[in-house]
Amino acid sequence: MKKEITSDKSNIAFCGLYCGACNWFLSGKCAGCAKNEKAKWCKTRTCCLENSYKSCADCAEFSNPNDCGKFNTVIGRIIGFVLRSSRIGCLNCIKDIGYGEYAKKMSSEKTYTIKRNSAYSKNK
Q1: How far apart are CA 37 and CA 101, in angstroms?
Q2: 25, 33, 63, 85: which has the fewest C-beta neighbours closer than 10 Å?
Q3: How far apart are CA 89 and CA 93, in angstroms?
Q4: Is residue 55 a contact partner of residue 48, using CB atoms and an 8 Å limit?
Q5: 104 to 55, 62, 78, 93, 97: CA distances (angstroms)
Q6: How far is CA 78 from its chain centroid?
Q7: Bridge-partner residues for 117, per DSSP?
């Protein structure tokens, strides 16, 4: 049985995507970024855990996450292109409205990502 989309800031992935609206998460195939112990391959997740960041939005080292080699990877760019997703947009939205409001926004819009053509997708 598929879970319902709810507003829960613990369902925000370290890269900014909203796991709480992802089909893999909703169908029980994934525990979500923070709880997915199999995701040790993800450099973004590892960095955020090592630095106690809720997401890359908290990073003090890079004002633009695309300057970070752990965030801006070939795989991340390909997935973003295919899904028309903007993780930068997600992080900009988190910075703008905060984690709680971001979770509310994403759950009410029933989406896991900010789309590439969004105003949030522009580098700030």
Answers
A1: 27
A2: 63
A3: 6
A4: yes
A5: 17, 26, 27, 12, 10
A6: 15
A7: none
Q: How many CA atoms lie within 13 A of 79 on its CB side?
A: 10
User: Would strands 85-86 and 114-115 be described as parallel, antiparallel, or unpaired?
Assistant: antiparallel
Convert the pLDDT of each residue in 36-68 to its tens digit. Answer: 888 888 899 999 999 999 999 999 999 889 999
DSSP letter at 16?
Answer: S
Q: Which pair of tokens denotes residue 49?
A: 């855990």
- For residue 124, name the pLDDT band (cuts at 50, 70, 90): low
Integer CA distances (angstroms), 118 to 32, 41, 51, 113, 122, in order: 24, 29, 29, 10, 8
**Residue 107 exposure: Cα atoms within 13 Å on the Cβ side:** 18
Give CA–CA dist 61/64, Å, rounded: 9
